[in-house]
Amino acid sequence: MSMDIKQIQDLIKFVSKSGVNEVAIEEKDFKITIKTNQEPTYVTATVPNPVAVPVQAAAAVAQPVSAVSTPATPAAAPQEASNLITIKSPMIGTFYRAAGPEKPLFANVGDEIAPGKVLCIVEAMKLFNEIESEVSGKIVKILVNDAQPVEFDQPLFLVDPS
């Protein structure tokens, strides 16, 4: 068995979306290891006959945990950006503001939020992950449209903690 470039790229995409930390495949004529750890995915492949293998590194996925927040300094933020907190996506997936088409939105601009409040859902590989706030404050801006794909660490909400 040997893998072509397309199969390797598909494997990288699958691993990056699945949220696993490491995959290793070993056959008698080749070995491939893909590791992820919330940084770019690195691929190491050893082949007996050296071949140039262009491999695109896919972004890694965090395990579905609650949202990670850090102080923000976005350029186009309303008011003084220095006091706003950015709530970022903990994974790659599709952003949803409600649990379904007929359901109420989890959070709107102007809503008061507290730690544990569900703000949105990020769907990855048919798993719907509720993203909870880790901060208290008022939502100032929602940075992503409903049903839009999001990347790991992409800003989703701006929150005024005062």
Automatic annotation (TrEMBL):
Per the record, GO CC terms?
acetyl-CoA carboxylase complex
Pathway(s) where this gene product acts:
Lipid metabolism; fatty acid biosynthesis
Q: Where is the Lipoyl-binding domain?
A: 84-160
- List, alphabetically, the InterPro entries matched: AcCoA_biotinCC (IPR001249), Biotin_Carboxyl_Carrier/Decarb (IPR050709), Biotin_lipoyl (IPR000089), Single_hybrid_motif (IPR011053)
Q: Has the keyword rRNA-binding been applied to this entry? A: no
NCBIfam families linked:
BCCP
Q: In the record, what lineage is assigned to the organism producing the protein?
A: Bacteria, Pseudomonadati, Bacteroidota, Sphingobacteriia, Sphingobacteriales
Which keywords does this chain's UniProt record carry? Answer: Biotin, Fatty acid biosynthesis, Fatty acid metabolism, Lipid biosynthesis, Lipid metabolism
What are the TM regions of this chain, as residue ranges?
none
According to its UniProt record, what is one Pfam family this protein matches? Biotin_lipoyl
Q: Does the keyword Lipid biosynthesis apply?
A: yes
> Protein name, please?
Biotin carboxyl carrier protein of acetyl-CoA carboxylase
Organism listed in the record: Sphingobacterium paludis
Q: Which GO MF terms does the UniProt record name?
A: acetyl-CoA carboxylase activity
GO aspect biological process, one term = fatty acid biosynthetic process
* Purpose of the protein: This protein is a component of the acetyl coenzyme A carboxylase complex; first, biotin carboxylase catalyzes the carboxylation of the carrier protein and then the transcarboxylase transfers the carboxyl group to form malonyl-CoA.
| CDD domains the record matches | biotinyl_domain
